[in-house]
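Marked as duplicate of an earlier ticket. Keeping the data here for the record.
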Amino acid sequence: MDEHKGRLRASELEDSGDVGVNPTHNLTMGEIIATRFNRRDLLRGSLAVAAISATVGHRALAANEQPAKKASNPVSFDFKEIEAGVDHTHHVAEGYDAQVLLRWGDPLFPDAPAFDPMKQTAEAQARQFGYNTDFIGFIPLNGSADHGLLVANHEYTNEELMFPGVGVQDSKDAIFAKMTQELVAIEIAAHGGAVVEIRRVDGKWQVVKDSKYNRRITADTPMEITGPAAGHPRMKTSADSSGRSVRGMINNCAGGVTPWGTWLSCEENFNGYFWGKLSDDHPEAKNYKRYGIGTPAYAWGKFHDRFDLTKEPNEANRFGWVVEIDPFDPNFVPKKRTALGRTKHEGAAGITNGDGRYVVYLGDDERFDYVYKFVAAGKVDPQNRAANLGLLDEGTLYVAKYDPDGKGTWLPLVHGQGPLTEANGFRSQADVLIETRRAADLLGATKMDRPEDIEANPQTNRVYVMLTNNTRRKEDQVDAANPRANNAFGHIVEMLPEGGNHAATAFTWEVLVKCGDPSVAAVGATFSSETTKNGWFGMPDNCAIDSQGRLWISTDGNNAKATGRADGLWALETEGERRGTSKHFFRVPVGGELCGPFFTPNDESLFLAVQHPGEAEEGTISTFENPITRWPDFKDGMPTRPSVLVITKQGGGKIA
C-alpha cells in the first residue's frame, strides 16, 4: 500500500504505522546485497538503459550460486502493451475486456438494499460488498473454471471518499471530529471480507445473489483464536475471559487459497485502529511500540472501549494474525491461526511440499522487517478435506536470514531455542508468536525493504518476494551497489529452496530485478534492455503465477509525481534470454492501487481489484462531493467506488 501521500488518514496506515520501528542492528538487505555484488556489477547498474542486460546481470551473481532452473516450456507474453500514464479511468491491453464485476455497495443477497451513497447504514453495508478489496481468490465449484466462489478482503476505508460532508482530512483531529458513531459503524461493516458465488454466462461473469454460499465478514464478526497463543493470559479481555474468541478482522491485506479450499486472510496494519497510550512500565508497552501501536488513524476508539488501550490493554494482541475461513460453510467461525505468527501480514501464499507438508510464505510489510515461512507439521490429505482444517495450528514458523554469498537460512522461531527463552521474556511459544517481531530481532533475521506478497512457482520451485520500497534507508546503510539508499522503487528477490524442498532450512537467492526507470542512470534499475518505456514499473506489491508458470506483478505507489504513471499490472519474464523483461498489461484510474491478481485455473479469466480510486495524490484534493474521478460509474452524485474487475480475452482463450 501507499507511502506517497502527505496526509494522515485511513489509506496512510502504512505511513502512520510503517515507521521502521525495528530497533536492532541486524544486517539490512541492502548491506547484504552490497557485499554480494562486485564493483563491475555496480558500474553496469549505473549505466543508462541501453547498457542494461538481464542476461548479463543474471550471470553477474556469485559464481557458487545454483543456476536458474529453466521452465520446461518458457512462454513469452504476446499481448500488445498499453501506454503508461495517468487519467480518470482504467485501461487494458488491446484484445481484452475489463468487466466491472463487483463495486463497493453492490448488494450480495436478494434482500440486500441497493447502494444509496446518501443513505448509508451499517445494516445495509453488512449485506453489501465492502470497501477497498485487496486479496482476491477464486475457488472453483465442481472443478469448473467458469463457476466458483470469489473470496475478497475488504482492507480499509477512505472516509473522505465514502461519506458526504467529511471533506478534506489533513490531520487526525479533522478525521476524528467528523466521524460519528453511526459512520464508524458503517466503517466496521465495510471492513473484513466477502464470499460471493459467481458464474460465467455467455462469456460474461455475474453474481449469483441467491447463493447459499454468499457471506459478509466484518470487523465485528465472531472469530475463534486457535493455535499456541489461544487461551494465553495476554489474549484475554474483559469481554473474553477465555482468550479464545474475538470480534472481527481488520485491515486484511493479501492472502491465499489452500489446496483444501479455504481462504487465508491476513491482518496487516492493525496498529492504526487503537487509541490510548500505555505507561512505559506496562507489560505490553515494548511489544506495542515494536508494532507501531499508539498513533490511531480511525475514530473507532472514540466509541468502542475495545479499541482503547487504556480500557482494554490486551485487545491489540488479538489482531495481526492470519485468518482461515471456509467459504463452503456460511456458518464457519473464522479461525485466527496464531501458529503463523503476529505481524503486519501482507499475504499467506502456500505450496504443498514434495513430502506432503503445506508451506506458507509470509511477508511483514514494514520497512526493515522480515520474510517468514510456516511449515505445517502434518501433511495435506487430498482425500479428506476435513482432516486438513487444523493443519495450520501445528508447525514451525521460520524467519529468513540472507547471506552475502547468495545463500540463506531459515531460522526457527521456537521457544527454548537460541535466545527465545524466559531470560529474554519468552515464557512460552505463545509469547514468541505474540511478539513475533521481537523474536525475529533476537535471531538476527535480515532487515528487508517492506516485504509484501510472496509467491512460490510450483513449476520451478522458485519463490518471488515483492519488496515495495524503503525511502528511509540511509546512505550509511548500503554500499553503492544495491539496493539503493532512499529506495523509492523497490525490487524483487527470487529464492530457491535447497533441493526444491520448501521445508528445508537452506536456500539460495538473487535479485530478479531492481525497479524504477532504467533510463535514469541514478535510479540503477535492472530491467532487461527489451523492456520499453511503458514496461518498467516501481513499487511491486502483489503478484500471481499463472498456470503456465509466468509471473505477473501489481504495483502500489506509482502516480503522476512518483513515476509519471498510474499503478497497474505488468507481466515479467523470469526465464531464458528475456529474463527481466516487463510488459504493461493493465492500469488503474487516477488515485487507485491495483490489488489481486488471481487467475482461474485455465488462465481464461483474471480477477483484479482497484483500491481507493480517486484518492487524492500530492497537490490534489479529492472528496465525496468532488472526487478526482467518479470511476467506475461516472454518474453525478455517485462517489468513486473501489471495485473488482475480471479480464477476459475477446473471442475466448487464455490471457496473454
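See parent ticket for discussion. The CA atoms of residues 579 and 585 lie 17 Å apart.
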